[in-house]
Specification:
Layout (H helix, E strand, L loop, with lengths): L1 H13 L20 H16 L1 H5 L5 E5 L3 E5 L11 E6 L5 E6 L2
Antiparallel strand pairs: 1-2, 2-3, 3-4
Length: about 100
C-alpha cells in the first residue's frame, strides 16, 4: 500500500494544474481535488495493472465524483468489441484505492 501512495503522490506532483481550469470539486479537504488529476492518477494505476493498450482502448472514460469524497472511473467499449471494462474508485481525501477491477 505504501508503494501505491508514493506512486500517487509522484503523479500528483507532476500533474499539478495551476490554471484553475481543472474542474475542482467542492470539498476542499480533497488531495485529489479535480477531474483531470484524478484521471491521470487512475489511468496510471490501471495501466500498471492491466497494460497500456487494454486501458487506453476503453476511452472515453466515464468519471464521476460521489458522496463528497470518492472519484470513480470506468472504461467503455465500442459496440463492436467483446470483453469487459475496468473500474476504479479512489478516496479523494487520502488517495486510498477503495475498489479496482475489470469485468470479463
Amino acid at each position: 500500500m505504501k508503494k501505491t501512495c508514493v506512486f500517487i503522490l509522484m503523479i500528483m506532483i507532476s500533474c499539478k494544474d495551476t490554471s484553475n481550469k481543472s474542474q475542482k470539486v467542492g470539498n476542499s479537504g480533497c488531495i485529489i481535488d479535480n477531474k483531470v488529476l484524478f484521471e491521470k492518477i487512475a489511468e496510471e494505476i490501471l495501466i500498471n495493472r492491466y497494460g497500456k493498450d487494454q486501458i487506453l482502448n476503453q476511452k472515453p472514460y466515464v468519471i464521476e465524483y460521489k458522496n463528497d469524497s470518492v472519484w470513480t472511473m470506468k472504461g467503455t467499449l465500442s459496440k463492436h468489441k467483446d470483453g469487459g471494462t475496468f473500474y476504479i474508485e479512489i478516496n479523494c481525501k487520502n488517495s486510498e484505492i477503495l475498489r479496482i477491477g475489470h469485468t470479463k
